[in-house]
Amino acid sequence: MRRLRLAMAQINTTVGDFEGNMARILKAMAEARSLGVDIITFPEMAVCGYPPEDLLFKSKFVDENMKSLEAVIEASSGLTAVVGFVDAKEKLYNAAAIISDGRLIGVYHKIYLPNYGVFDENRYFKAGKETPIYIIAGIGVGVSICEDIWFEDGPATAQAYAGAEVIINISASPYHYGKWQSRQQMLASRASEDIAIVAYNNLVGGQDELVFDGNSMVFDEKGGLLARGRQFAEDMVVVDLDVESVFNSRTHDSRWCQRSLLPEKKPWRLTRVVVSEEPSKGAGPPLPPEESFQQPDRFAEVYDALVLGTHDYILKNGFKKAVVGLSGGIDSSLVAAIAVDALGASNVVGVVMPSRYSSPGSSRDAELLAKNLGIVFLTIPIEPPFAAYLDVLGEAFVGTKVDVAEENIQARIRGNLLMALSNKFGWLVLTTGNKSEMAIGYTTLYGDMAGGFAVIKDVFKTNVYKLAKHRNAVAGFELVPATVIEKAPSAELKLGQKDADTLPPYELLDHILAAYVEEDRGVEQITAMGYDEAVVRKVARMVDSSEYKRRQAPPGVKITPKAFGRDRRLPISNVFKG
Amino acid sequence: MRRLRLAMAQINTTVGDFEGNMARILKAMAEARSLGVDIITFPEMAVCGYPPEDLLFKSKFVDENMKSLEAVIEASSGLTAVVGFVDAKEKLYNAAAIISDGRLIGVYHKIYLPNYGVFDENRYFKAGKETPIYIIAGIGVGVSICEDIWFEDGPATAQAYAGAEVIINISASPYHYGKWQSRQQMLASRASEDIAIVAYNNLVGGQDELVFDGNSMVFDEKGGLLARGRQFAEDMVVVDLDVESVFNSRTHDSRWCQRSLLPEKKPWRLTRVVVSEEPSKGAGPPLPPEESFQQPDRFAEVYDALVLGTHDYILKNGFKKAVVGLSGGIDSSLVAAIAVDALGASNVVGVVMPSRYSSPGSSRDAELLAKNLGIVFLTIPIEPPFAAYLDVLGEAFVGTKVDVAEENIQARIRGNLLMALSNKFGWLVLTTGNKSEMAIGYTTLYGDMAGGFAVIKDVFKTNVYKLAKHRNAVAGFELVPATVIEKAPSAELKLGQKDADTLPPYELLDHILAAYVEEDRGVEQITAMGYDEAVVRKVARMVDSSEYKRRQAPPGVKITPKAFGRDRRLPISNVFKG
């Protein structure tokens, strides 16, 4: 029986950490060797981390990446491996090295370069023009990279038709909620249509605004899921591939002969490289049974993405501890909970900063939350500096009415206090603004927006509640106090202020925002969906006029198909009304 | 004699301002008509403004752009015009409409889409595949867009070889110092090599971080400059083109026959459209003599770029007045002078915010500058809020040493005060950090970095001095006081602090920064240029570790080939040491 033992190393790389990434690669190779694996795969650009962005313009970065690859090749005795790296030829290529037993067998160059959403690959890379098939242990294996496999009748299909029975795709596919389902659906179709085993090795880990969710998958030639890597955690997926079955399925598929022709001209050509004709020993140690896969609840999934993104941002940037301003509201409560799950309670500090407008309940709720989370908390009143500001501004402000200027001073005092603690003790400040607020500018620049990482900037307010309830359900008690969840949202920057005084209800607001921001619908189109035109227009104007604030916001975890940041690039100077 | 009267409308468009842009287009068309012009041209995307970025994903934006074009077509009686717009077909194209006497004659689609530096055109557009020649008044005219003309043997050359005697290129080419010279050189070569008149119509005006510098140019077929549009200002360049001379030059060029063959296969095909065979009336009113062109001094040019960029950012974003914190140092003095030149003295407010560490000279210098500029200035001491911060932080800071935390509190108080004035009175805050400081992070996030526009963020410190001296020379007196220029740079955030205590001299620093930031050289390469390795390494590390600050910085005018911003996209989470 023709078979292959395949390992997919779902590792968490760091951009520019050649040493650390190599250590992960070599460790996985050693483990694979001990398991009698025939071929091991690694994610896209495993050697240098993804996405390296303009580091690619630094020749030393590219050189170190080539040197790392050399070291991986040298360490590959007794194994075949597929390793993502940057290939420096006359131009740069997003590449996969196929290495075997200490030799570089071949290099695949990514053909379809994504240049949409968060991606700018045309900025850096030239597109590949060859779809090679490697004969490994006598079996035809096609290799491609990420985007390449998303095209029907693309490189993977061409490889299958030309004899590849196993299709390997190494990937760095960023998370948004539900994306793994569309990946799974696409990969299952690719496998069943191409009658090939499809092994999809995704990256895992946080990198600035992106979280790579892992979820590597292997499908049999009927599109059945054989194995899956963990979500949001490193993993090594080892699976025995029954290639005999691919042959049988193809033989019994009446349309296979006709389908194995490609009448259209494609921008690539097929090549064929023999690595080894000797069949797999096929007798590695028995593999443990796969854990059964529990489809996660959407909010559990998003919560875990936020935890991983926060953890990796803080640690990859050399911080250990984080500080959060606790207002007693739902946003800061959720952020504190995520921080504790990411870093441990001993690495999170809460700061309560009451003002003359804070309700007594707010400080009480904040304290209760801190106690529930087991974190240290400080109380620093903002009244003395606030009074001092009003005093020194007295002359300049003479004859003016109290307005948003005085509100923002308070938010900015809090920002300044948190940054002072950050500067003094090396804690990273986590900001607490949600996507609804970021969208309409219901935040204070340099105030509550001040900090290193904006944990929930891509989470709409209505979902903030759902995530808090999810976390409480996991805890089995009211970790986020019920009073926090039940109170009316308020910035508490003036007397008796409530969000609802100036904003539509969040249930309504979030629907309008999703249509305007994430789907690029115009006011007329959204009104036609059944919303009040005046409300839609007001919301759209608030979004448009807050672009300058978002441009100065810290990064945060992308969890939706369109997050603020690299995903949505709008001019600040712009008079268009959508 | 075969001739054409050509007008190039060098207009200042605003992104999304369909009404305003159209008004400019129609006004220029009316003027051209009165001057007996045969053909008038407008910049790239004149209808919608450039660059529209992700507004292109909004269908209403694209629709309004198409409607504007319709209106321009209707208004084109008696004229032929080339107008930049976005063409909505199955995909979007960066396009030029060729319209004549109320009809759309044809549409050219940009072939070479820039996707480097600040450009992301592959994100939005499909590349064109045709290089049309239009017969206008019996004369062959080739039309292309911006990047297309930068390629030797590109679309313009193909059009020339196929009979075009006049090559029109509509453009939106952003400024950096010296760029117009390289444009001029390239265009002169294109004209003389293709033996064709080349008319290059550039955009003018500021758009977020970009300034388009105008400098539209017309060359005869020998590469001689016939006319030039103003730099940094709207203009209408009208010139009589002697096409007869092109014919004669080609006839007398012994290599023209051989050269008019294109052996290689190109990714486009030539087309030919007759607009009018009737010769130009050729008898518009006589044109005034061209003003003689004075090559500007480099610092005069950069200064003007900063003024236009600041003016347009403020006005296009709906502000009228600006406020600047005046420290008595060179950076804030220069920014205030630029603001006055951009907005007028009555629209600029200076704020002096002395602290316990301010030298008496600083306030005096700031006051003198404000008087020289004729601007209102306020004095707001920061001591009372500073004392209040230290007081409320006393418990948290117990047992710690005074360090950068206390320094930053002061800078952030100033930021908070300026933002309070902004919120109260609607003044836009201009920040004063220069490129040297932005590079190494010698700035306080939410402190001196707080504001709407960072006027000199792309100007190295050594050049800040040169710009101040230039401005003084124009003024004819010490507008920026000599004491400001002569004093040793200091942030004055602790007693006796001088930049030179912790930083290399700026003359040295700026050279290292230019190599590391603008040229992407590594530490080893820069050391090999003759600099001390320890200094280079320290500077490189400071640059690397300040990426998170730059990500939260306000936009500012790009004046170098590589500015911070869209031009330089580095990850924050990154452990690579260059």
Task: Tell me about this structure.
Two copies of one chain form a homodimer. The first copy, chain A, has 19 helices and 20 strands. Chain A has 578 residues and is an alpha/beta fold. In chain A, β12 (217-219) and β13 (225-228) form a beta hairpin. In chain A, α7 (298-316) packs across α13 (461-475). The mean pLDDT of chain A is 95. The interface between A and B is large, with 87 and 86 residues.
Multimeric organization: homodimer
- Structural class of the helices, strands and pairings of chain A? alpha/beta
Give the strand order, joined by hyphens, for the main sheet of chain A: 13-12-9-8-7-6-15
Rg from Cα of chain A:
27 Å
What is the global morphology of chain A? elongated
Determine the strand fraction of chain A and express it as a percent band.
15-25%
Beginning-to-end CA distance, first to last residue of chain A:
62 Å
User: pLDDT average of chain A, as an integer?
Assistant: 95
Largest sheet entry of chain A: 7 strands, mixed
Element layout with pairings:
The structure is a homodimer of 578-residue chains.
Chain A: E1 3-10, H1 18-34, E2 39-41, H2 59-74, E3 80-88, E4 92-100, E5 103-109, E6 130-136, E7 139-145, H3 155-161, E8 166-170, H4 179-194, E9 197-201, E10 204-207, E11 210-213, E12 217-219, E13 225-228, E14 235-242, H5 243-251, H6 256-259, E15 269-274, H7 298-316, E16 322-326, H8 330-343, E17 348-352, H9 360-373, E18 376-379, H10 383-392, H11 404-425, E19 428-431, H12 435-440, E20 453-454, H13 461-475, H14 482-486, H15 499-502, H16 506-518, H17 523-528, H18 533-544, H19 547-551
Parallel strand pairs in A: 1-2, 2-3, 6-15, 7-8, 8-9, 16-17, 16-19, 17-18, 19-20
Antiparallel strand pairs in A: 1-14, 3-4, 4-5, 6-7, 9-12, 10-11, 12-13
Helix pairs in contact in A: 1-2, 7-8, 7-13, 8-9, 8-13, 10-11, 16-18
